[in-house]
Amino acid sequence: MADINFSKGSVASDSQEAASPGPRAGEFRWDIIELLFFAYRDFVGDADNELEAFGFGRAHHRVMHFVYRYPGLKVADLLDVLRITKQSLGRVLKQLLDEGYIIQKTGNNDRRQRLLYATPKGEALVAKLAGLQTDRITRALRDINPEGVAAISEFLRAMIDRDDPDKVLEAIFGIGSKKPRE
Amino acid sequence: MADINFSKGSVASDSQEAASPGPRAGEFRWDIIELLFFAYRDFVGDADNELEAFGFGRAHHRVMHFVYRYPGLKVADLLDVLRITKQSLGRVLKQLLDEGYIIQKTGNNDRRQRLLYATPKGEALVAKLAGLQTDRITRALRDINPEGVAAISEFLRAMIDRDDPDKVLEAIFGIGSKKPRE
DNA sequence: AATTTATGTCAGCCATGTTGACATATCTTG
DNA sequence: CAAGATATGTCAACATGGCTGACATAAATT
Asked: Which single residue has its CA nearest the C1' atom of nucleotide C25?
């Protein structure tokens, strides 16, 4: 039979309860925690498979995606969004530039800036990957009514940290505030 | 001003439309795609911060989580769930065993098997991390009604590949089928 | 003119994934 | 029982994509 024991109803995590500042016994959202794990795993898996054919990895996808979606994004913005170091970004960005998926344009106001744009080649890649992911999402939403879809969107938004949002998040959340320095 | 150009309504990805087998112009779920990215980033970020204090990484968390949740999980099951190689698993599993977060018991029926169990120390770690993530989830669900929560759960389930589910997914989806060989 | 900012780059380290080869113990089967 | 299959562990090498630290350049700001 199953050698998995599911009887974890009343969690036995009383052992070191002293160091447990948050939740009381038993009310963990194991369901959502695990669903998020598997859903995200398969969601990004769609793109991962395709990317192999291009010799790219997830890092390239993330860069391409946001450059395509927010044309003219500055390098600094991209660093905020991806939350990686410029050295890490530099590595993949260089490849995408060299291979003609992205082009840089010098900023008009500030000529130190390198504004990033997807080339047609880059757009095609993003569209292909977004197509796969959209297919999965569309399938998953098929039997869910508009109120349900709204709840899903609301939930995902509420899962995101709102303190110190980057430019892309400001766009997504439509934050008009956030001192427009520059 | 904003140097992000949002005018991506009518996507200009017509360039290499020949190689676009999937979706027609314009109907990508950019909203959900990006919300999933940011939501998951911040969701796992909770755990990542805590893990540093233990000298562990995400890989350790994933192993601990599933071992705790499904006591007596076999190594082979874990490999199915995590979809990594046994060498990768071996590295983190060895540390967790050495440091007393997990113990192994020899299988009763099959003495080749190593059944995995979280020790109290391991349970405490999992509980701490799950507490953080549960807090975030609870916050995000706060203003959503039961129908909405059901839709969210349904959506996440539908995002997961159902072909060839591993033991944990069988548990989650309550699949009674799947020939119980062994 | 001096300083700060935006970007790029070199060098090396770490975590975590991969493949391939092989060892051991144990179960299953002819 | 002997042979083969299975479950696990381990060694070695390599790839990806994070990281830190140091430093260079050009352009903006003060």
From this structure: B112
